[in-house]
Amino acid sequence: FVSEMLSAQGFGGPGKMKEYHYAGAVENRFSPYAFNGGTVLAVAGEDFAIVASDTRLSEGYSIHSRDSPKCYKLTDTTVIGCSGFHGDCLTLTKIIDARLKMYKHSNNKTMTSGAIAAMLSTILYSRRFFPYYVYNIIGGLDEEGKGAVYSFDPVGSYQRDTYKAGGSASAMLQPLLDNQIGFKNMEGVQHLPLTQEKAVQLVKDVFISAAERDVYTGDALRVCVITKDGINEQTIPLRKD
Amino acid sequence: MPHLSRVSFFTSRKHKPSSTKMATLTMSRPPVAGFSFENCRRNVFLEGEVNNLECSLPAARKTGTTICGVVFKDGVVLGADTRATEGMVVADKNCSKIHYISPNIYCCGAGTAADTEMTTQIISSNLELHSLSTGRLPRVATANRMLKQMLFRYQGYIGAALVLGGVDCNGPHLYSIYPHGSTDKLPYVTMGSGSLAAMAIFEDRYKPDLEEEEAKLLVRDAIAAGIFNDLGSGSNIDLTVITKGNVDYIRPHDEANKKGVRLIELEALQLTGDYKYKRGTTAVLSKCVTPLDLQVVEESIQTMDTS
Questions:
Q1: With bands split at pLDDT 50, 70 and 90, how would you rate the model's confidence at B62?
Q2: Which of A129, A172, B104, B204 is deepest in the core (most CB within 10 A)?
Q3: Domain ranges across chain B
Q4: Cβ neighbours for B273, distance < 8 A, ≥ 6 positions apart
């Protein structure tokens, strides 16, 4: 279905003009994947974690939905952000929810953020030769109550970070976070610990900038702040063009 | 009578004084017969060379774009968005897509940005020479004919999709011109990746003999549909209203999207924080000062886009 749509437009993909072939066989391979855009971001603080995503769902040059957030609540202390191919995002989150329930029933306790991250890695690698086209970032509180961020690639390689951006505008957001949170490439600046207010403001500003330059990012921003008191969600409007 | 020396661009021709016979058509070099594809073979070879080095050539910047035009009672209204994309990244948030052809003719361009810019400039230049030669205000049909002949000569390799509009001695005219060289003369046209969104608005609300304000609103709404529903178009709306003897080049007509400003009805709140760096934040490894002995001749200030 995806390749039929592309050939009807005479496109080689968004932003590219296909060469016209008037004679000879034209092969239109079916592609099981689609790129639905979207950007996710997670920041870990001393006693909080933030997971934020834009809410635009797009395909090619069109917009499917302006209100499709990419943050999914897993437990009271963990939120996952998934961007990439929306079909795989939905299936993956369903599978994770099922596995969380199974763990709860077998072990009589909720999965910790670190355990969820390890489990997700095995789930993704089990599909090593037909991957889930999803860029995942888990944000939550670890056993000690400190903020934790785990970032993944589509086949399950993961590591714990302080902050990470994923999705279509990740290359634009990551350097800014490196500078403002990691204090990279700056001399003589005080390394103040990140407060929750400053982190939330930074996340909003960073998404406003991403929406300027990335066509797939925009419409609205969903910010989930995870603290020991629970998960607080805010929605902020972004550029709609 | 003063000698009007007509200098053609071929330096091999001898410099002749003007003849007072009928107007001679000496413009830029006349179109070469047949198709010239000498550079295509070279381009393919170069691309192969670059691929061997594991690199890729920079992609031509396309404008994505929504452009449209409508004929109303006294003239034409042309509209365009202002976003230029390079792949799916915005390269220019406020580029100008309505190009000058002659005092009474303007042209919107979609497709490869360099192609639309250079093609309209070449035809504008040729048309000015032609107009001096005929002694008359240029006609829209002439610009159309020149554009289509050039684009056909290049068999679609010049990726310029244009909406040409103007008012001449025969009234208002509007043409759409495709990269392969076909043209359509219509009362309302749209081009670009956002053309379907804009055409939906036109098909709903166009009627013949609109008033100027109605036509401006219709074009504004059509471009806005493209801006909000097409990812390749965005930012602001530029309009050009051409009537007999007057051109209104309205840039921007509507700033449909402002950075980081929340618009709740009429309230606009500044949302973004301030990011400033103290002097000395970037590490200086070494410093070498070379004084230059210069005199200040002229001082001018050019504002930078810091948005």
A1: low
A2: B104
A3: 66-255
A4: A201, A202, A205
A123 touches chain B (CB under 8 A): no
Structural Rg of chain A based on CA atoms: 19
The answer on pLDDT for B19 being more than 80 is no
What digits encode the pLDDT tens for the residues B120-163? 999 999 999 999 999 999 999 999 999 999 999 999 999 999 99
Return the bridge partners of B172, or none: B167
Report d(CA A22, CA A27) in Å as an integer: 13
B261 token code pair: 């400003």
Q: Is the pLDDT reported for residue A107 higher than 70?
A: yes
What residue ranges define each of the domains in chain A, with the CATH number in brackets? 39-238 (3.60.20.10)
Asked if A15 lies within 8 A of B230 by C-beta distance, the reply is no
Determine, for residues A237 and B83 on separate chains, whether the beta-carbon distance falls below 8 Å.
no
The full length of chain B comes to 307
Chain A residue nearest residue B270, CA to CA: A205
Read off the amino acid at residue B185.
K
Determine the residue among A190, A204, A215 to mutate to test chain B binding: the one whose Cβ has the most chain B Cβ atoms within 10 Å: A215
> Which chain B positions have a beta carbon within 8 Å of A65's beta carbon?
none
How far apart CA A127 and CA A33 sit, in angstroms, is 14
Q: Which residues of B are catalytic?
A: 65
Amino acid B63: pLDDT: 56
Type of residue found at B198: A
Closest alpha carbon within chain B to A219: B228
Homologous superfamily, domain B66-255: Aminohydrolase, N-terminal nucleophile (Ntn) domain (3.60.20.10)
User: Distance (Å, rounded) from C-alpha A3 to C-alpha A13?
Assistant: 9
